[in-house]
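Team,

Forwarding the record for the chain on the shared tracking sheet. I've put the sequence and predicted structure together so nobody has to dig through attachments.
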Amino acid sequence: MRRDRATIECRTPKDGEPATNTDPTASWSLVVPLKPLVVAKSRLARSTGDLLRPQLALAFAQDTVTAALACPVVRDVVVVTDDPLAAAELAALGARTVPDSPAAGLNAALAHGARAVRADRPRAAVAALNADLPALRPAELARVLTAAWDSPRAFLADAAEIGTTLLAARPGSELNPAFGGPSRHRHLSTGAMEIVLTGVDSVRRDVDTGEDLLAAAALGLGPYTARRHAAPGPVTAPVSDPVSDPVCGARPGC
């Protein structure tokens, strides 16, 4: 009987085991782009202030990468960033980091990350995933990625149904990312299939504004973001110590 990959729930690496998922049914390599923290998530500053904003941007990425690496259909995660702190923190979680050598914007960074994956494994299935999904749940991500196998290229729209939070390309297909602004329409126009699923709100809830962060908090924030969001005021240094249960954290029903 074929194993149903999408029904597997959260899984946390045990002590001494690599964070990268080595399950033979794990198929996808994820590419996660992250701007330098000093300029990331600029629209959050209005509600969080400039001191907390870069720390939240890092926390979002930490929760995103942690959940992605715990997803049963994810093989590995490549983070494209030029930020040395973010690269170190995300590598400590088990991600591979590569510099944004094109330095030509989001879509160039994603294409670069996809090429880095396929330089090692030419037949890899690759998906681009936003770095600002602090409520991300591994089981919901697994459902989305499993549905993505139905088309050579597939994408998931964000909660506003304007942008895109995930774009997937099966082996033999180019990622051809068109993120930014009304990217849902652009991805449709390039022939990508739109993934339409209910119950995957955590994969659709990216965070650009204070209102978005409140909506993500209603879903259940990951532990890194929950610590920042609960702070009484801006703090001056990122928290990099390990947390208990790094996958499920504050999320209800993970």
